[in-house]
Amino acid sequence: MLETFDKVEIQLKVNGKPYSASVEPRLLLVELLREEFNLTGTHVGCDTTYCGACTVLMNGASVKSCTMFAVQADRAEILTVEGLEKDGGLHPIQKAFGQSYGLQCGYCTPGLMLSTYQLVAENREPGDSDIRKAIAGNTCRCTGYQNIFKAIRLAAQNMRGA
Amino acid sequence: MLAQIGDDAKLLAGGQSLIPLMKLRLANPSHLIDLNFVPEAAYIKEDGNSLRFGALTRHAAIEKSTVATRIPMIHDCAAGIADVQIRNRGTIGGSLAEADPSGDWAAVLLTQKTEIHCLSPRGERMVPLGDFITDAYTTVLGHDELVREVVVKSPEKGSGGAYLAFKRSAPVYPTASAAVHLEMEADLCKDASIVLGCVGLVPVKATQAERELRGKKIDDKTVNSVMEAVRAAVDPQSDMRGSAEYKRTLAVGLVKRTIAVAVRRARGERVEVSHIYA
């Protein structure tokens, strides 16, 4: 028999918009985003804290949303892939992934773009070893990473110009 | 709260080990008490001759701290644990309290004079790290007790240390790791501390290998005897990360490389190292 738990009221900001929810304490953050808020751009890859497909930013720091409880995001600001575009236009990181063919099946891409977001926020001119370190927690099974590297270099370059 | 709820309750720090263990049903706590809403528990302070880390200090905060680089092997460790996302959540106190035989912090900090300050309703007590971990996944912490602070004494002038871990990919635990701290006087090694991770139920202090270094010039002959002593000291298990023999060979190779970095740092050179992976 499944145990039930008292629900907890939480309030948080996702992509700049206020959300509130009533959740069981065992609910994972990624389940809150996907199943309660319908923000299905954040993916569940391995569900074992390995692949990084579920990466989102919480208060500016990248986290694996499958390895946090939703109640831990109470009062937090979350950024998901849906929050990257602005006024209907793609974010420079999204454009760079498209232009550089930095994806094939696209499953890992939202997580990679958010890891890129944190990298570029901290380091406007990342070198190859910085990029390697920044995306070490994001697994891609299609590309072999070469075009992802190109995309991240291009994104950083375009964002310096912007 | 822990005292009230009973010993089925667990403390949740960064959760980067506990939550995956719960998903696998290897941990099944009746209650979790989330410590993350106690911001005062995350800090890095320089205090006379010591560095003091609040238990909830994230690996990423230590990696980025200029204060923490005073002990370079602490930076080696913090910058190489798992990946960016896990370092943004995982904490030094949580890692030590979990006492995973493959954890990074215990191996590193056992080469230093490290004190664990524990807090319970009975008050605070200090436990040297060497006495804190008693077995795999087991510490002296009572069920109503937590790690409040980790205090590391600054090493002597003229000393150098380094930490190297080998892992199969970024997010996983290392296959083997080596922490070496050397106190040097010109070419002579005055004192040495060598601890190996992932190759026993608790981090292995290689006392015979340390003896091989004391009072010696660090040349090929000395390093070879240290490597032989390390080979004899470690007792790894064969598992999915590699066979026992593979891990033994890996530990021996890592010690050689780590000594080389420690010697250079003792001379005052700046050397950047971190975890190694394929």
Question: Describe it for me?
Answer:
The complex is a heterodimer of chains A (162) and B (278). By secondary structure, chain A is an alpha+beta fold. Chain A folds into two domains: 76 residues, Beta-grasp domain (Ubiquitin-like (UB roll)), CATH 3.10.20; 70 residues, DNA polymerase, domain 1 (Orthogonal Bundle). Helix content of chain A is 33%, strand content 15%. Chain A is built from five helices and five strands, in the order ββαβββαααα. In chain A, strands 2-1-5-3-4 form a five-stranded mixed beta sheet, sandwiched between helices. In chain A, a hairpin with a 2-residue loop joins strand 1 and strand 2. Chain A is globular, with a radius of gyration of 16 Å. The mean pLDDT of chain A is 96. Chain B folds into two domains: 140 residues, Uridine Diphospho-n-acetylenolpyruvylglucosamine Reductase, domain 3 (2-Layer Sandwich), CATH 3.30.465.10; 118 residues, CO dehydrogenase flavoprotein, C-terminal domain (Enolase-like, domain 1, 2-Layer Sandwich). The longest helix of chain B is centred in the last third of the chain and has 23 residues. The model of chain B has no long low-confidence stretch (mean pLDDT 95). Chain B has 278 residues and is an alpha+beta fold. In chain B, helix 9 runs antiparallel to helix 10 and helix 10 crosses helix 11. Chain B is globular and about 60 Å long. Chain B starts with a helix and ends with a strand. In chain B, the strands form four sheets. A five-stranded antiparallel beta sheet of chain B has the order 3-4-9-5-6. The interface between A and B is medium-sized, with 23 and 20 residues.
Task: Name some characteristics of this structure.
heterodimer; A: 162 residues; alpha+beta; Ubiquitin-like (UB roll); DNA polymerase, domain 1; 2 domains; five-stranded mixed beta sheet; 33% helix; B: 278 residues; Uridine Diphospho-n-acetylenolpyruvylglucosamine Reductase, domain 3; 27% strand
